[in-house]
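for the recovery benchmark. tokens below, seq after
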């Protein structure tokens, strides 16, 4: 299977090409580069490096969330357009599961934690002795509230772990283990593996109905709910 995966869940973004379970090419973007202005160039570069066009692909994978509202919409819109144009299937995956895969074969649980702003984090806990298995499902909450769920030594990874490192260390002491610096950015190559697994189970999303999984409401939704409540 020739599978192209895209991740735009954070300020960085990446594109990866997997062929029959082997990583053929991956492009990881500079976090300062806006998604929309360069993502198609990176995608084209990855395909050209393998001598392929979108029509040569068998499937697409895309991060559904949680993460940056704007970033997720950009990535999903691109994959939706490619899938509709080529007639190829799509699988989606969690940004937190993808991030946890940066810590493979881990002896301890892995807490993937992204900075959600507003003094909150997107977070989940996984066992990563193979593909990630959820211990605590994806959620959005305050760092302090989430740490109440941690009962054993745990590896922390992601922008949220970096931002709230002092708090995590204060609460968990020696039970807080932080991933190396190179592990804190999500990678589309891990997403490709999650997408391939989804395809093997028949978890296919019709291209026309792919939507982001924000977990919490957007500002527009909050404003609408306030109007409807008469606030």
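predicted aa per position
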């Amino acid at each position: 299977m020739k599978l192209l995966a895209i991740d735009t869940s954070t300020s960085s973004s990446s594109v990866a090409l997997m062929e029959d379970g082997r990583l053929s090419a991956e492009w990881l973007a500079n976090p300062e580069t806006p998604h929309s202005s360069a993502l198609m160039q990176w995608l084209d570069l990855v395909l050209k490096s393998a001598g392929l066009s979108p029509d040569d692909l068998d499937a697409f994978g895309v991060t559904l969330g949680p993460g940056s509202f704007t970033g997720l919409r950009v990535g999903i819109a691109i994959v939706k357009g490619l899938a509709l144009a080529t007639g190829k299937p799509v699988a989606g995956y969690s940004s937190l599961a993808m991030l946890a895969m940066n810590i493979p074969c881990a002896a301890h649980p892995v807490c993937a934690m992204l900075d959600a702003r507003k003094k909150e984090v997107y977070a989940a806990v996984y066992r990563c002795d193979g593909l990630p298995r959820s211990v605590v499902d994806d959620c959005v909450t305050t760092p302090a509230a989430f740490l109440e769920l941690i009962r054993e030594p745990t590896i922390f990874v992601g922008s949220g772990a970096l931002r709230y490192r002092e708090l995590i260390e204060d609460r968990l002491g020696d039970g807080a283990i932080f991933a190396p610096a190179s592990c804190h950015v999500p990678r589309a190559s891990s997403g490709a593996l999650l997408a391939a697994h989804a395809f093997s189970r028949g978890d296919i999303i019709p291209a026309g109905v792919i939507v982001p999984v924000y977990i919490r409401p957007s500002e527009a939704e909050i404003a609408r709910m306030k109007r409807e409540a008469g606030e």
